[in-house]
Amino acid sequence: MKYDENQDFKKHHFDAMVLFNEKNQNKYYTVVNKGVLFNSYVGVIQIGGLTIEILPKADNSNNPDKGTWQKVLLNMLKVCKHIQVDNVSETNLNKKYNSILEVYFEMYLNELESLIKKGLIKKYRRIQSNQNALKGKLVFSQNIQKNLIHKERFYCEHQLYDKDHLMHQILYRGLLILKDLVNNNLKDKLNRILFEFQDYQQVMINKNHFEKLVNDRKTQPYLRGIDIAKMIILNYSPNLNSGNNNMLTLLFDMNKLWEEYIYRILQKHKPNGYQVSFQNSDKFWEHKTIRPDIVITNDQNENFIIDTKWKIINANNPSDDDLKQMFTYNLHWEANKSMLLYPRINQIDKEGTFHYNQLEKKCKVGFVNILDNGKIIQTKISSQIVFNKLISSNE
Asked: Within 10 A of 92 (CB to CB), how many other CB atoms are there?
């Protein structure tokens, strides 16, 4: 994607993205001449009024259906619990959003609206202030400094029981960030909720504030709202360069997301007699470890290895490095079968044998459909595709 002053993506957007990427060890995308090249990360970047959505793609079309692949990404985030399941119904997933950020924004405002209806809670907080009578404990150093002339006053530290506490300050900060980010459809709701928070302190929240939170029975209903506020606040980068290019990013490593997605579906739909484990780690060499993505074990203690890859390949041409990796997994976990698992376009599975002494170690290059006639499928990935391909007798 290259910038062009006659297009939506301009040089000041590009400059902000370069600076953001540099601050994050250049992991999100590659900077090229007058543009950026997206690699394995998907999600959304919002710079001022410009929204850039990077969607997963597993087809040969030069003009992929944005709505379809947006639903795929939302479904993966839902399955992997990056979006609260209760908050995102099938109706939500079928809505047309400009970007997945809007899903989070709408969830956030719905959560806060629900809290307001139930009644915002009060909590104790410690404050220091001048009082006409001794209240709490006297802060000697501050009292001498502030009340040298006014001997009748006391500078005290005491507790106050009200609604202006850290939880509400965090939620308020999230709302203030959203003021410049939400579209017109959500502005009315945002303004109504902001009115309820207008008397609270404006605090510049950082990750340390979230570590100070203490959860109890009273604060349990706040957890979802706080989680979304944390995402909004910690992914917000104000004024990345000259001008007012405030930036909010929500980016996910597609390889890790695909890996966790497959694991969670297998775990949910596994046949009787099988156990599925995720990211097994074992000693390999000195301090180094070896870690296949997914290990499936049956009641006969047979191991089957799956390593997921989010890329488009030809079944006859897996990379040498990937095959060597699978061969190592087969030996280390004493597995007779393993599989490299990719999203399917129109490829046909291919099974091969590793040639090592007289050992019979199989590795399949397997593919799974994410969509079936435009609809997202899950159960087939497990019961009808993955387990049949990997565990059944040679096809």
From this structure: 15
